[in-house]
Description:
Layout: H1 7-40, H2 48-59, E1 67-68, E2 71-72, H3 82-85, H4 92-104, H5 123-137
Antiparallel strand pairs: 1-2
Helix pairs in contact: 2-5, 4-5
Amino acid sequence: xxxxxxxxxxxxxxxxxxxxxxxxxxxxxxxxxxxxxxxxxxxxxxxxxxxxxxxxxxxxxxxxxxxxxxxxxxxxxxxxxxxxxxxxxxxxxxxxxxxxxxxxxxxxxxxxxxxxxxxxxxxxxxxxxxxxxxxxxxxxxxxxxxxxxx
Length: 150
């Protein structure tokens, strides 16, 4: 057996295998990037208002309680599909207004329920956040989350 697998043969197998799997890794990374950019993300509706809404989401650390696409804390409901759940497919303006009104009404004061803080956002900030949540609902999540929020 030692005559068959020499040091140089073992080295060539190692380098050849490493190059082969590195090439596969690069190809799969390129395919994933192509899919995310061209298929799953709603680039047509990615506006400055959506970007500002994303910054508001991050600045107020909404992910400390909520999840979006399963990322974030699981303390409060998933909001990646809140726009759809609140009727955004049939009445987009009404769903955006509902999101804004919900944010203004916090905390609700319902006994026995954890309270969401009121961030005292301006009307423009609320509109941007609603635009971000509307945009997020149009992302192809490939069936994620597996259970719809109630």
